[in-house]
Amino acid sequence: MSKVSIIAAVDRRMAIGFENKLLFWLPNDLKRFKALTTGNTILMGRKTFESLPKGALPNRRNIVLSSNPDTVCRGAEVFPSLEAALRSCQKDEHIYIIGGASIYQQALPFADELCLTEIDCTAPKADAYFPEVSSKVWQEKSREALPADEKHLCSYAFVDYVRK
């Protein structure tokens, strides 16, 4: 089976977005995202794909989920369901689920690990949230706490969880 990781940046309330945009601009989070996902497969919903400023992300296999059979996403493969998309992956493929909220919810039972950026702030407005990370299911594997600075308005931590 392929390795499935979920990657997201969450605020104190587990909020992840507002009006199809990220809540925070954290350059180090974006660098981590690029370092982890480059050379691997990224899987996302159609709205997340449409939110990418330049479309499909380079040097990655881009997979988009859409229930509309006419959906075309340039530079990406489109599948009607998470299960169909996962079946298309090779055993040695590392798949990163990159959003949005409903895709995270669907993918949680399939995930081997969570790669979260936990932001020590609360976004003023949010309309998309990450599912609950239950301590009965997930165990913290590593945490790298970083302070606020001139490029990062809030302190944050890169936290990896593994399934118990």
TrEMBL record:
One of its GO terms (biological process) is tetrahydrofolate biosynthetic process. GO terms for cellular component: cytosol. It comes from the Bacteria. InterPro entries: DHFR, DHFR-like_dom_sf, DHFR_dom. PROSITE patterns: DHFR_2. Its EC number is 1.5.1.3. GO terms for molecular function: dihydrofolate reductase activity; kinase activity; NADP+ binding. It is an enzyme of class 1 (oxidoreductase). Keywords: Kinase, NADP, One-carbon metabolism, Oxidoreductase, Transferase. Key enzyme in folate metabolism. Catalyzes an essential reaction for de novo glycine and purine synthesis, and for DNA precursor synthesis. PANTHER family: DIHYDROFOLATE REDUCTASE (PTHR48069). Belongs to the dihydrofolate reductase family. This is Dihydrofolate reductase. It comes from Bacteroides caecimuris.
